[in-house]
Design goal:
By secondary structure, this protein is mostly helical. It contains seven helices and no strands. The longest helix is centred in the first third of the chain and has 38 residues.
């Protein structure tokens, strides 16, 4: 029993380290691509800063659509979208830390919406914990866990966004 617990915990830690490493590598690749496009090709886009391109900025652009749908005021849409993307890729603790850092630049309604949208454990790290933890106990079911993990991620994310939309309506 103790050895099973140790195997599960080591597997979860390994999955999280691997996930963070992949994200760091992706950020590095996007930063190099962004600098190349910005400096060599002289591409300048008004909606995204290519000189500091990252997974967070790309997801922020994508999730700004969701931030707008849940009722975030237009000037705050990109910042709230970036936080929503960061929460999905990394985790809610890092996103909340960044929310605290930029709270003075956001409207009160955007802070409330972001607080609700970031609430929950629907992120890639949670899938890694699920596959690493439960998969170690039942290795034959890892494929099913991975398939269901993505669905759970989508459902959990949308549930948080529904709560954020309700908070935005009541604000």
């Amino acid at each position: 029993a103790a050895s099973d617990g140790m195997r599960v915990s080591l597997n979860v830690i390994a999955m999280l380290i691997a996930l963070l490493s992949i994200i760091a590598m992706g950020d590095w690749l996007f930063a190099k691509l962004g600098l190349f496009l910005y400096n060599s090709c002289h591409i300048h886009l008004s909606f995204i800063d290519l000189s500091s391109l990252s997974i967070k900025s790309i997801l922020g652009l994508f999730f700004s659509f969701f931030a707008l749908i849940v009722g975030t005021p237009l000037p705050d849409v990109m910042n709230v979208g970036a936080l929503m993307g960061e929460k999905l890729v990394l985790n809610e603790f890092i996103a909340y830390t960044d929310l605290i850092a930029i709270k003075d630049t956001l409207s009160p309604k955007a802070i409330v919406i972001a607080s609700f949208a970031l609430c929950g454990f629907a992120n890639f790290g949670s899938i890694a914990i699920q596959i690493g933890g439960i998969g170690e106990l039942c290795p034959s079911r890892r494929k099913n866990l991975a398939r269901l993990g993505i669905r759970a991620l989508i459902c959990g994310t949308l549930a948080s966004y529904i709560s954020a939309a309700m908070a935005g309506i009541l604000m």
